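> call design_seq(struct)
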């Protein structure tokens, strides 16, 4: 009788472990095993018109080795290709995947009471549609950055005293890298630590 109860309990637990949970709405092609709880205070999501990036943290009472194999199986079934995998006794397991130019990092480690899963993902979004026609706003309104305007020849020469030569306009200083490039660099460096 005890054997039947234990066998039934094992089957129920196994079936519950086979269920999947999507990794938040941001990334539809990342499915997680059941039994993990999202940790919003430890997670971060960055979204812009051209890139979406996040580090999503989950915790549960799963064995780290089993969780690592389940993640590998689920990600490969969704089209992700494993690039590397490292395991240490102090840092846990790190897996890196690639799919269509997007990168995904999986870090599985043990805490005092729970096993943690940290997913670092980035996704390049298609560029937004460009408006054409008379309803297109000026570049300064669309981007929030005003371009420097060179003074007109007539206006520049009217400010000069006799015998003075007009100044040649200087090139604008090189701007900081775009937000998209900074986010890409952040996640690229995150996976190389």
């Amino acid at each position: 009788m005890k054997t039947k109860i234990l066998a039934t309990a094992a089957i129920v637990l196994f079936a519950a472990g086979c269920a999947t949970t999507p990794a938040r709405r941001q990334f539809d092609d990342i499915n997680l095993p059941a039994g993990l709880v999202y940790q919003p205070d430890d997670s971060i999501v960055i979204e812009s018109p051209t890139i979406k990036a996040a580090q999503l943290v989950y915790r549960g009472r799963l064995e780290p080795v089993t969780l690592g194999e389940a993640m590998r199986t689920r990600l490969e079934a969704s089209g992700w290709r494993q690039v590397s995998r490292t395991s240490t006794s102090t840092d846990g397991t790190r897996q890196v995947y690639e799919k269509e130019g997007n990168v995904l990092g999986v870090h599985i480690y043990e805490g005092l009471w729970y096993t943690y899963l940290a997913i670092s993902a980035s996704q390049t979004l298609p560029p937004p549609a460009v408006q054409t026609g008379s309803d297109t706003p000026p570049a300064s309104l669309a981007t929030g950055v005003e371009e420097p305007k060179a003074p007109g020849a007539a206006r520049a020469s009217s400010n000069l005293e006799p015998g003075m030569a007009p100044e040649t306009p200087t090139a604008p200083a090189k701007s900081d890298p775009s937000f998209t490039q900074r986010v890409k660099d952040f996640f690229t460096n995150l996976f190389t630590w």
